[in-house]
Known about the structure:
With 325 residues, this protein is an alpha/beta fold.
Amino acid sequence: MASETTTTHATGQTTERNLSLIKPTGPLTLGNYLGALRQMASAQDGADCIYGLADLHALTVTHDPTRLRKLVREISTILVAVGLDRSTLFLQSRVPAHSELAYLLECTAYTGELSRMIQFKEKGRGHPSTRVSLYTYPALMAADILLYQTKQVPVGDDQRQHIELTRDLAIRFNQTYGQVFAVPEIVTPPAGARVMNLADPTTKMGKSHHDGSGIIYLLDAPDVVRRKIARAVTDSDTGATVVRRDRTNKPGVTNLLDILTACAGPRAADGISTYGALKAAVTDAVINVVEPIQKAYTDLADDPCAWSSGSYGGGPSRSPSSFGL
């Protein structure tokens, strides 16, 4: 989830605020970095950036507590390793205002609204063991947005329903209690690098997949990266023009070209005419991207006490009043 707002200070200066939360459902991937984390890091130059780890959202479905704790530590460290140390970083469960506001929004929402949410309809309805939090979590997601007075929320179609509910809750709350929340607008997000699964290039390289054979994780060792790219799906075409973009007929090759361009620049594929050469170039480009992240991660993980309180102390210390609540 990502959102943004614009704040005008007393000096007349205008500052854009970027908000994004990451749910720790699996290890971060190359797709997460190229599609989101890299842009999040560059946004720090001109915006007040607030990035969080939505660990409470990860509790809404069956999970392994030991694995979840490990993922929270790992992803928290990676966010600093990729250069987000100039942002306000926070762990959702450590900022009580998120759950407190979620309860107030639960008191504002109607059961009919929550029953219509796609996540609950697909994963929970009709299952006696469904957790109540899966039913109510849209209120927590709305709290994540409204707490920071964000005015624009860039989302894809899969999240539009949640933002529409957030708008409805903000309007209803304001009508009942006075003008408290900014009502966010839904905007189309800028297109980031779209990285697909190497083994199935018709699906995204997501962090929640159980089969990691086609997924490059940010902490994969170089030999693992080489092996996964060497096994990447291509096709049976032959000839001098086999290395070309064609998302419909050559999704595997197109995915490799997209990864190469995102990692090494738009001219990186010039002169490449065979699949072997393409995979070799992609391998080198990916390793060049992930190796500095892995080195920074190792240094940070070796001494977490030296950075965690400073990097992740900003979230709890920024009270709701600092966002106009």
